[in-house]
Protein 1
Amino acid sequence: MGIEFPYRLYLVVSQESCAGRSIIEVAEQAIAGGVDIVQLREKNIPTEVFVERAMLLKDVLDKHNVPLIINDNLEVAMKVGALGIHVGNNDTPPTGIRATWGAPHCLGYSIEYLEQLQTDQTKASDYLGVSPVFSTATKTDTVTEWGLGGLARIRALTDKPLVAIGSINVDNAFEVVRAGADCLAVVSAICQAQDPAKAAEGLRNEIEKAL
Ligand SMILES: Cc1ncc(COP(=O)(O)OP(=O)(O)O)c(N)n1
Ligand SMILES: Cc1nc(C(=O)O)sc1CCOP(=O)(O)O
Ligand SMILES: [Mg+2]
């Protein structure tokens, strides 16, 4: 609550998503191209390994003054001193995170149903993930494909910063921002690109044009 969220291009990264390259390599190139916030999203690895990976990534992000968000795992977020955490409806709820993690941290929360906008969980969050704007092969256990119309509807109902996620790429980035997103979050458009810096730069240019 109350934490600034001035970010525009959000890289969501895991070892698996990086097409054989290291997370560090992809993240550094993405930052060179205009990514200004990074989430480490590792599923099904032991917490100790998640912590190790997060520490290595945070060291590099710190050098570039780019904040780290941890997906799902509060223990990891706290241990590595991340800026924040992103949670969804199957995770520790935002109010629970606030109760455990005292100091102001950045809390992202996925919006899958319009009704969520009226809840204490949304109130407790600093930004909302519009989950997903377009369905994606990267995450298939989703509920509502919001589309541009759904995103615009959410925009009209909340002043919280909106992070659009799901099949965002250089061809739709402009219209997604115009529909109401403050920030675009991507996995494949950067992590699968042959040149992550160039891919990030292309997305960033579209964002800046749309603002
Ligand atoms: C920026 C952003 N938005 C949405 C999500 C999805 O979170 P969640 O619904 O908890 O699903 P998982 O990522 O945990 O599979 C996200 N991670 N980041
Ligand atoms: C991590 C994540 N969360 C989503 C949601 O809808 O909440 S979609 C997603 C993956 C987005 O990957 P890509 O950019 O490759 O489509
Ligand atoms: Mg989650």
Protein 2
Amino acid sequence: MPTDGFDWNVPMTRPVRLAISGASGRMGRALLSLLGDDARFELVHAVVAPGSAHAGQPVFAGDADSLRYADDWTQAPALDVVIDFSGPAGLALSLDHCVAHGIALVSGTTGIDAALEARLADAGNSIAILRAANFSLGVAVLTRLLREAAAALPGWDLEIVEAHHGRKQDAPSGTALALGHAAAAARHTTLEAAAVYSREGQTGARTDGSIGFAVVRGGDIVGEHIAMLIGQGERLELGHRATDRSIFARGALQAAYWLAGHERGHWQLDDVITAPR
Ligand SMILES: NC(=O)C1=CN([C@@H]2O[C@H](COP(=O)(O)OP(=O)(O)OC[C@H]3O[C@@H](n4cnc5c(N)ncnc54)[C@H](OP(=O)(O)O)[C@@H]3O)[C@@H](O)[C@H]2O)C=CC1
Ligand SMILES: O=C(O)C1=N[C@H](C(=O)O)C[C@H](O)C1
């Protein structure tokens, strides 16, 4: 059994029939490069943006017999699970298809507005859904550590700094927001009450108990998050640096394998991860 922290001991009698939404993107390509060696899955549909130049092209370049990209769900075959890393508009379409056909949905898409959040929440009444702002094991552990530190140091100022590549569409990152929610809950408050998303000009002094966010964008940064707990005369920093998108892809594939066949409802990456504790 691999020792990568996920529980791989799920018996399946046939490959899981998988669709990827956002298949031509950075995360889509990371998923495709892992799927070539993964007998647990049969990739049967690969969705790109409506009207995309990728539509009709082979998913595995150079292989004329390969599955071809589709720019909608109309020709999708029977599926066990969809993995979505497309963006909010693509996720809305993936969700429609999954709900209409009773298909499990794994999504890593971030930057979702309140209306789509509400639709996703409601969809848990009819299909199995697993969403995570970050599919890496390291961030799962970082989140646990931050909860503990935020509770243990209630009077220390908390600032969350994140850095990503220059093409990222949303800010702060989904991971930064998830870290903020976890820390706020550990301090018996909410991120809505505590968050400060921007500072400029005559800001006045820092509000006690607030959680500040700072955002860096540039080049090819895969994803970095640092939570600073700042006291008087000392500072605790908890951080994670992703250097390869395959960590997110591996986590999403494991989540999809685990979720296929699970009953309807909302599931968490923590349900899939069995170690470390
Ligand atoms: N949870 C996690 O661990 C991670 C989450 N993410 C999140 O995943 C999402 C995608 O990131 P990334 O791969 O960098 O993005 P990219 O911009 O590289 O890729 C986006 C993909 O989605 C497709 N797409 C765009 N619009 C639609 C649509 N309306 N319907 C269907 N497909 C569409 C694009 O197709 P086309 O090429 O034709 O334009 C492309 O394949 C983001 O929300 C990001 O924050 C990213 C990394 C890790
Ligand atoms: O867009 C990205 O690239 C990433 N997005 C996720 C986020 O918003 O937290 C996860 C990861 O940091 C990469």
